[in-house]
Amino acid sequence: MKLGMVGLGRMGAGMTERLTRAGHTVQTFDPNVGSTAGSLAELARQLEPPRAIWLMIPAGEITERAFQDLLSILEADDTIVDGGNSNFRDSIRRGEEAGARGLHFVDAGVSGGIWGLKEGFCLMVGGDEEAIGRLEPVFLALAPEGGYAHVGKGGSGHFVKMVHNGIEYGLMQAYAEGFELLNASGDFELDLRQIAALWNQGSVVRSWLLELLERALEEHPGLEGIRGYVEDSGEGRWTVKEAIDASVPLPAITLALFARFGSRQDESFAAKVNAALRGQFGGHQIRTE
Description:
The chain is an alpha/beta fold. The protein contains twelve helices and seven strands. The chain has a seven-stranded mixed beta sheet with strand order 2-1-3-4-5-6-7, with helices on both faces. Strand 1 (2-6), helix 1 and strand 2 (25-29) form a beta-alpha-beta unit. Helix 4 (88-100) packs antiparallel against helix 7 (156-184).
């Protein structure tokens, strides 16, 4: 089928290539790279009704602006797909706004990163049956076998992706802490890359993340040259906030999020407070800069 793709970054470019290889025709728009269209309006003209335009751009203001522009460009029965990491509450609202104009809106949580072109993209899709049924050939082409599901009504795709990313935070932090302890052992000369490879052979902690860690340790033995500064995309924060609102305990995911905050501090003010207090009440030595 024919599809419009907005955004040709690492994910969008890989998805476009995978769809093209599967025999689909993809018209593209990205102001920063060569595209088939020079604007959203031109992209719409390159497609036949009922059109489908997939947004693969940063969540927030950029996605909102593109969505609002498409509302005035597209016609009844066309579909807008948001494949970015948008907040599911924004997706619910966008679905309602699109529906009021006779348009379909599909929120697609996408996981796979730069490996998606080769391995396939895991797709968590929310929206109405008609639009998703029409786009199913695209979803099946993008995903590996069993890697696509219509998880529910509008907003559910991005909700499931949000929780997925929260779990990812916790998994990554658990691996990070375990390998830090292995690295700190002074009694053994441990090969961390070897251990990562070993644990992927029959161990209950085997995973693709562990495969990637083995690869990273092979490329950067001891992780020399890598600064321990860890960003967050925002979805971990949303996960924790939703858990608080629903009174659902998420201690591991919450602490993993806070660990990322801590990774960005050159010097912890809280640690200075602790050091100062120990000096005040116990006369313990304070190390000065």
